[in-house]
Amino acid sequence: MSHPLDRVARETAWQRLDGGTFDVLVVGGGVTGCGTALDAATRGLSVALVEARDLASGTSSRSSKLFHGGLRYLEQRDVRLVREALHERELMLTRLAPHLVHPVTFLYPLKHRIWERPYVAAGLTIYDTLGGKRSMPRHTYLSKAKALTKVPGLRPDALVGAMQYGDGQADDARHTMMVARTAVEHGAVVRTSTQVVRLLRETDDAGIERVVGAELRDTETGATCRVRSRVVINCTGVWTDDIQAMVSDHVPFRVRASKGIHITVPRARIASDTGLILRTEKSVLFVIPWKELWLIGTTDTDWHLDLAHPAASASDIDYVLDHVNAVLAKPLTRDDIVSVYAGLRPLLAGESDQTSKLSREHAVSRVAPGLISIAGGKYTTYRVMAKDAIDAALPDLPESTGACVTQDRPIIGADGYHDLVMHLTSEAQRRGVTPDRMQQLLQRYGSLVDEVLAPMADDPRLAEPVHAAPAYLNAEIAYAVTHEGALHLDDILARRTRIAMETQHRGTESAGDVARLVAPLLGWDAVRVASEVSAYVARVEFERASQEQTGDAEAEAVRLLAPDTLHPLAVGTSRA
Ligand SMILES: Cc1cc2nc3c(=O)[nH]c(=O)nc-3n(C[C@H](O)[C@H](O)[C@H](O)COP(=O)(O)OP(=O)(O)OC[C@H]3O[C@@H](n4cnc5c(N)ncnc54)[C@H](O)[C@@H]3O)c2cc1C
After folding, report:
1. What is the pTM of this model?
2. Which of 208, 247, 389, 483 has its CA 20 to 30 A from that of 129?
């Protein structure tokens, strides 16, 4: 049995934090922070991770969800970044997270005769070679006729031929949460809705002022406590500057936010066997298969507004529609859109005026004695970022601290996954679910699947599909609360499941049933159930309305009319 992230664990975590001392305090529960907590815990260090909102509630649930080298970084001659990312892709697919990361193929339509095919083929050959030992097939060339049989949805005049290649794909929010849970398995204390509001500083015997811990605030209750640590590691993505501003105005790097949005449309709207990668004037646009949907994105524009709730505007949506429609035989319209989400890239500031040209490489720095900041990078390279962060903290850590071992520490649910897949039909039958359902469950939980399904024996309601979201079982909703640290409807509907993104109603039709199901587990009375449901529905409605507004400022103003279930303080230079 795994260690559950439930209400008891939450209370115990607060007791351990309050007045406690750790080797490492990680700030931020995105993929970088969770990876850093796992890295530290597996080196035998005592670790606490605090997250102001929910695990992956920042950028780490709003990405394109690809474990990839990034073809366009190759074009920018960033070979080191591509090699590193492809190495990570391979590790995830084979050893660390085979249950969560899966291959996906992309077709690149060629538009120009003569020069373009050798140019793209040369790039893809390097991509294949840098990928090393391959769990991904090598790229292939497709004639125009062959490409159109694979993607009948393309306009015949949109290509003269095509290249096909492979990459990796994962549910980012679930993957981040599973990394956090793996850290807990290795002894880390992880607590969500817990914000760092101040860094503690002391002058040591040598007269040097050091960061020695943090003041924490429970964003559910407003309670505060202090925790001490040998080192604090700032993994707060687009909020990096806020934490840095708590100690110094003179910092080695700053982080700026660049907004990227995705729309989702039903699979049936684009006839295709494969994903697409399309060139745009600034960057690339992906059309990515995602269960019954296509995810289409992304954009790349500067963002100076609220960091917690970036809004997609009508102009963002039109940009995506215009670019994808340029190659589709049957253009998409706004009516085809199932959902829209926006995320903020944490980019290292100051390298280029155009955000899409800023390096995706990460930076790690000792901002002050006892405080390390790590930022930039990509989701794909989180494990390397985590290693670099802990390596940079070594001067603050015990001399006996070992080297990074996360390349050999699978994410929970990986052990035994392949055996279950090999006997999918019989394993499904044994658990009373269809093979399709079993496959989906394995891709969400791996070998933890029995922990999810076991309570169905005592409560048959849990074996039923979620109201208005039949791709999920009620058992998964309960498990989100009993084991995966979900505290609010948004955590359950937007991140533990992806109902918010995968249904036309964006979770509003499921919210009432889901709230009543988890009420006894979270100690909610009828009033709290009603307020959680109304806050969730309001969030969806204002988000929809914001997507009708032309510009960022108008969209953001409407989005912020939705009430926030959490109450983080504005800290540092913060806008949220
Ligand atoms: C549109 C888009 C598409 C992308 N697609 C890809 C892709 O396909 N592949 C890829 O490799 N990368 C992709 N990326 C990049 C990738 O998603 C990010 O690099 C990564 O998720 C950043 O993770 P993070 O942990 O650094 O930041 P975050 O996930 O934002 O985590 C930071 C966390 O810190 C918390 N926090 C902030 N302040 C405090 C405080 N005071 N106390 C406690 N907690 C605090 C926040 O609540 C937040 O949860 C994409 C990014 C975007 C925007």
Report:
1. 0.97
2. 389
